[in-house]
Amino acid sequence: MSDSLDHLRTRPTRATTPDLQFVAPGVWALRNVFVNLFFVRQTYNAGPWVLVDAGLPGAAGKIRHAAESLFGPGARPEAIIMTHGHFDHAGALESLAEHWDVPVYAHRLELPYLTGRSAYPPPDPTVGGGAMAWLSGLYPKHPYNVGSRAHELPADHSVPELPDWRWVFTPGHTPGHVAFYRESDGVLIAGDAFVTTQQESALAVWEQRQEVHGPPKYFTCDWEAARLSVERLARLQPKVAATGHGIPMRGATLQQELTELAQHFRELAVPAQGRYLPDPAIADETGVRAVPPPVHNPSTPWILGGLAASIGLGIGIWLKQRDGARRRYKHHGRNRHHHFDQPATGYAAAVDPFTPVDEDGGWFPGPQNL
Fold this sequence. Notes:
Elements: H1 3-9, E1 20-24, E2 27-32, E3 35-41, E4 49-52, H2 60-71, E5 80-81, H3 87-90, H4 93-100, E6 104-106, H5 131-134, E7 150-152, E8 158-159, E9 162-169, E10 178-182, E11 187-191, H6 202-207, H7 223-235, E12 240-243, E13 249-250, H8 251-263, H9 265-268, E14 282-284, E15 287-290, H10 300-332
Parallel strand pairs: 4-5, 5-6, 6-7, 11-12
Antiparallel strand pairs: 1-2, 2-3, 3-4, 8-9, 9-10, 10-11, 12-13, 14-15
Helix pairs in contact: 7-8
C-alpha cells in the first residue's frame, strides 16, 4: 500500500470520533447522521453563543440536548446563522427558531429559500456516481419559512454576535452560500463550499473517510462559481476547517489538500457532464429564475437495481470496521495526549474522549499558539 493510502488509514473515522466533538477554542461540531452543525461561542471561555446551521429534519431535540450539554440547562443561542438552506442544513431550523425565539441570518441570495419564496434548483442525480447522489432526487426540495425571524447578513461581512468572525461569500453550491472565518487563529467553517468526505458515496459517508473534496455534486448548481469559491477559501490558508460533511481537518494536511483542490478543481471536483454543465442555474434575490433541462441517464435502472445491495454491503463493512476500531481505541485511545484545552465549563471528557489532530500541522499544541 502506498504511503498516501497508509496515511488515509490512520485518519479519524466515524468509528473513532464522537458525534459531539471539539473543533477549536469556542467551537464544537455536532454530527447529525451525515451532516454537521456547529456551536460557536463569542469568546473562547465565556459569553453568548450562536448555532451555525440546523441539521436534518427531526434533529431539533438532539441539537438542544447537545447545546445543554455544552452550555447548561435551558441553553439558548443569540442567533442561528446559516451557511445555506438545503434540507440537511435547515431541516430543524423552523422548530429551533420558534422554540428559542431567535433571529436567523443568511446571505440575501439565500433568504428566498428560508422564507418560503422559492425552492432550490433541482438536484442532479446523474453526477457523482454514488448512492447519495443517486438518491438525491428523493431528498426534500421545499423551501423553509422562518418568516420575520429571517435577516440578511450585514453588508460589511461581520457576523452577528461573533465579533472575531467574518463571513465569506462562497456561491456555487447554492446561490447565497457563505463560509465563516476567524482570522485570529485560522478557523474556517466552510459549509458545503468544500467538504472533508466524499459525500456522493454512501460508504464514504457512513465511514466518514477524511479527505478534502469539492462541494456535493448532486446539489451544486453553478460549477464556475463553486470553483472560484474554493480558490477564495484556499487563499485564506486555514489552520482548521470544519465543513458541512466530514470530520474537521487541521494543519498541513488540510492546507495541502485544499490547495490541490483549488489548483485542479475542474479535474478533481467538476463532473464530466450534468444538468448544470455547461450552463448554471440562474437565481437572484427572489429565488430561482431558470434551470437547464434534466439530463437523461440510461444507466439509472441498473443503478437503482444495485443500490439496496450496495448500501447493505457498505453498512456491513462499516459496522465491522467500527467494532474493530472501538476495540483498538478501548486499549490505546484513552492514553492519547490531548492537545486542546476544553474551554466550555460543561465540556466533560465524556463528550470528546478522542480528539483527532494532524500531528504534522502543529495546530494549537499549546497556549503559545492561541
